[in-house]
Amino acid sequence: MKHERLGPVIAVANQKGGVGKTTTSINLAASLATLDRRVLLIDLDPQGNTTTGLGIEKHQVDKGVYEVLMGDCALADALYDTPCEGLSLIPASMDLAGAEVELVTAEGREQRLSGAFEAYDLQPYDYVFIDCPPALNLLTINALAAIDRVVITLQTEFYAMEGLTQLMDTIRLIRGRLNPELVVDGIVLTMVDHRNNLSVQVEQEVREYFGSQVYEHVIPRNVKLSEAPSFGLPVMHYDVSCKGAQAYLAVANEMLEREHFHRRTL
């Protein structure tokens, strides 16, 4: 039986590592939960940084996204609580690193996550987020085939645009073959330093090229964002007054405004 989704399913993606993808996944999801939305976060990255960043060790995970992909358990059986009220997690386990090799010969290998969502029997979440691996591999393709929208994180540095064309091409390919409803929700600029001329220049170039697809609010470089994961907490639960926490809350509010506009125009 296929279950309806009331809220959007969003992948946070960029095949380039170190661009704030996991930080954004955790803190955008936690910010929306802070704003009284019910949120599910899925850690699809074998590194498992989203899992540990929310206080769960990978070796302690009995049922996670690997078991969901392999058909060994349902989404409902892989849920973990997090330190944030309103935010649930489907974690990465140690076995997820081998999932791509196992998926190569699996039936319906590109749509395992889609199948799990079709059997989704939980009460609807307002938002579902998927933290993708920093690669355009079978795990990322599973995410792109299962979602409604993509949020792309982009660091404002010299090689910011490198690989972005490839990601956009992959999104178009997935839209044509597996998921015709897939759209780019927007681009979130991360590690922004307005004291740095290069950072300012890159931001200007990205905004000129992508226009309204770029979120108005940006994520600054902030030491608290780096410290919070070591305590297993989103930054707003670590230091809500810091610039990083306030930036993610602003992006979350902007996402809610975009969602409101999207629904009005349907």
List keywords for this structure.
266 residues; Rossmann fold; 11 helices; 14% strand
How much helix, percentage-wise, in residues?
Answer: 25-40%
Class based on secondary structure composition and strand pairing = alpha/beta
CA gyration radius, whole angstroms: 17 Å
**Biggest sheet, in brief?**
7 strands, mixed
Shape: globular
The CATH architecture classification is 3-Layer(aba) Sandwich
Would you report the number of β strands? 7
The named CATH superfamily: P-loop containing nucleotide triphosphate hydrolases
For the biggest β-sheet, the strand order reads 3-4-2-5-1-6-7
Query: What string gives the helices and strands in order?
Result: EHEHHEEHHEHEHEHHHH
| Low-confidence spans | none
Number of helices: 11
Proportion of residues in β-strands: 5-15%
Notes on the protein architecture:
The protein has 266 residues and is an alpha/beta fold. The protein has one domain: Rossmann fold, CATH 3.40.50. It contains eleven helices and seven strands. It has a seven-stranded mixed β-sheet, sandwiched between helices. α7 links the parallel β6 (149-155) and β7 (183-190). The longest helix is centred in the C-terminal third of the chain and has 23 residues, at 243-265. The radius of gyration is 17 Å and the shape is globular. The model has no long low-confidence stretch (mean pLDDT 91).
Record the SSE blueprint.
Layout: E1 9-13, H1 21-34, E2 39-43, H2 49-53, H3 65-69, E3 80-81, E4 87-90, H4 99-104, H5 112-118, E5 127-131, H6 138-146, E6 149-155, H7 164-177, E7 183-190, H8 197-210, H9 223-227, H10 235-238, H11 243-265
Parallel strand pairs: 1-5, 1-6, 2-4, 2-5, 6-7
Antiparallel strand pairs: 3-4
